[in-house]
Design goal:
Elements (H helix, E strand, L loop, with lengths): L12 E4 L3 H13 L3 E5 L13 E3 L4 H11 L4 E4 L6 H14 L3 E4 L12 E4 L2 H6 L7 E4 L16 E6 L11 E5 L6 H10 L4 E5 L8 H9 L3 E4 L9 E2 L2 H12 L2
Parallel strand pairs: 1-2, 1-4, 2-3, 4-5, 5-12, 6-11, 7-8, 7-10, 8-9, 10-11
Helix pairs in contact: 2-3, 5-6
The protein binds ligand 3Y8 and NADP nicotinamide-adenine-dinucleotide phosphate.
The site of NADP nicotinamide-adenine-dinucleotide phosphate (NAP) has 25 residues, from strand 2, helix 2 and helix 3.
Length: about 260
Amino acid sequence: MPMIESHSAMRKTLILGGTGEGNRLAAAFAAAGLPAVHSFAGRTEAPCAQPVPVRIGGFGGVAGLAGYLRAERIARVIDATHPFAAQMSRNAVTACAEAGVPLLALERPGWVAQEGDDWRDVPDLQAAVAALPALPARVFLAIGRQNLASFAARPEHHYLLRLVDPPSAPPLPDCTVEVARGPFDVAGDTALLRHHRIGLIVTKNAGGAGAVAKLTAARALRLPVVMIARPALPPREVVGSVEAVMARVHADLGV
Ligand code: 3Y8
Ligand code: NAP
């Protein structure tokens, strides 16, 4: 990240959030008294309360984001979005280059299979649909709401869905909906898997601590997991912790 003139101490940082990391980063900016704006897509009815100003909704593609960066005189962008929010991350790389605004990505490491895990690694969502068993199964589809339509092609299975907000209509023909926001814990996820007699879990490799509980529960219950790999992202500068982001920001501000 290039040197930034000291007056940028009062210019805002844009945090592209919507994750546990985004929330922790916003708290760190507030604690340091550094101005920031925390951006959400507006996927959920009400994102959890934030200690810095929030903006909700898309920017309007690359052009919209570049225009926002200029209009708001944004000093830097921290991409703390989820590893599967690929479009937002791609747009951030292009828009920051266009607007000449430094970009730093805060990315959690992916989950790695451990002793006792029974993972079927698949490259993407379509491959996850194809990886479902031939015989009807009871599947915990822990991928949220946006990609459920792909599984309508496999109506023979019973799906347990965990969604942040109640759906307006049953998203799949044979499904049970659990409304919960996370972060989740092992006891709760173990009870959930047992209660619904789940035989298989489908999940994205989100990484992080907020949704790892189901993998720990699956290992204990010896359940197979279809693990969807992360989408490829363009090259960008990446750090792995809130502390590393704050160290970079303080270094850039010369404080
Ligand atoms: C709106 C912000 C915190 C942050 C909570 C993290 C942890 C729980 C893991 C399961 C997997 C899933 C889903 C999930 C995780 C945290 C974190 C994380 C997965 C909130 C949030 C927003 C969203 C959007 C939502 C998606 C959905 C995905 C549910 C807030 C709570 C499945 C992703 O109903 C919908 O439209 C939901 C949409 C995008 C994936 C999808 O495609 O449906 N997240 N999740 C963000 C915005 O508007 O910009 O509402 O407060 C944030 C969190 N989601 O500590 O409080 O990883 O940081 N979220 C996945 O990983 O597969 C749940 O159930 O086991
Ligand atoms: P996406 O597919 O990568 O982005 C689609 C569009 O949504 C973007 O082009 C942008 O619209 C808008 N958008 C996405 N994130 C935004 C943000 N933080 N602030 C403002 N606009 C945003 O995104 P997604 O996968 O739907 O994720 C949406 C949000 O949910 C993100 O905040 C992400 O961190 C969070 N989340 C996603 C997942 C997941 O599994 N995908 C999991 C947990 C949390 P414009 O082009 O109009 O700017």
